[in-house]
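Section 3.1: Structural characterization of target chains.
Under the original work plan, the team committed to producing a structural model for every single-chain target entering the pipeline before any wet-lab resources were allocated. The record below documents one such target. The sequence was received from the expression subgroup and is listed exactly as submitted; it comprises 387 residues.
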Amino acid sequence: MSVFDDLVGQRSVRDQLERAALAARSTGGPGENSAMSQAWLFTGPPGSGRSVAARMFAAALECTSDVPGCGECHACKTVMGGTHPDVEVVATQGVTISVDQTRQLVSRSFVSPGAGRWRILIVEDADRMSERTTNVLLKAIEEPPPFTVWMLCTPSPEDVMTTIRSRCRVLTLAVPRAEDIAELLVRRLGVNSEDAIMAARASQSHIGVARALLTDQAVREQRRAVIHMALSVRGVADAALGAKRVMAAAEAEVKERSEQLDARELADLKRSLGVDEGARVPPAIRAQLRELAENQKRRQTRLRRDSIDRAMVTILSAYRDVLTVQLGAAVELVNSDFTEDVFRMARGSSAAQSVERMDAIAQARIRLAANADPLLTTEAMLVALRP
């Protein structure tokens, strides 16, 4: 067994990481081996497993067995479980990673490892750093302590500054085949192969989404509702109603994921500050409570935006299927459970119209990422889908 066994469809990346982990040991450890790069940039589309590959590499570097990344030793298990004291994973809950967060991270990078061989810092959302924030990180990556390894994860190398990119070893992950994803799901979840391959295709080879489609009925129902709505738009009224439904689903997801977490964070903060439940908050600590409220609001904004974007990606996949049928391409449909609706839409429109609709969806995603009003952006996208 190896920690890399779940890195499906990434043979080349796996080989590189295994060789690097071996090279890191070849002369005894940190600071003694020039073959070991101390700055890595993991790139690839959503669902390709960027952050998972980074965690696996971290486990291989900290592994205490003869073969790096055994998956059985205490170090491997704690790294993959997120509890290793020398491996820190940064995944922003807000829209961006702040300068203060980055400064604290850089400061911790100079602390010697306490249990393992390396101090490893994994930044899952490096593309969410502003230029100012990235500048704070540049010096630490350029001249790291001999025991520190940085691992940045972004969809594309262009998502980080050239000065950062030039100092990192870049690993590019490809989109795994649906069959590879299905095999992993069967092995991990014990589901039947037919359900696994349908979920893998519907998720467009996104491992996390495929797992959710198999294990969460609400996710399955939301996907079906979004596709049915998008393929049934006939006029402006349908578009406006559909946009409201997308927004309502996003708000419901935000509430479900934030309500208890926000309350728990607030209670924990008050407890740490010595404020009893129901007691008046002293003026001296109100600033800390306001900071927590602002961070929670930023997290909710990101959750809302991510939910709407996932709906747009699902709609885009449906029109990809329509275009596939119109062009007579010999490839499998992403949404094979909507075959009848896809063929109906393909007969009622042209390939040029499908391309225009897909362009409208892509433009809506760009506007959403640029902080445009979510409701108006979704309405405008759905209006562009009408016959």
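The beta strands are 39-43, 87-90, 119-123, 148-154, 169-172.
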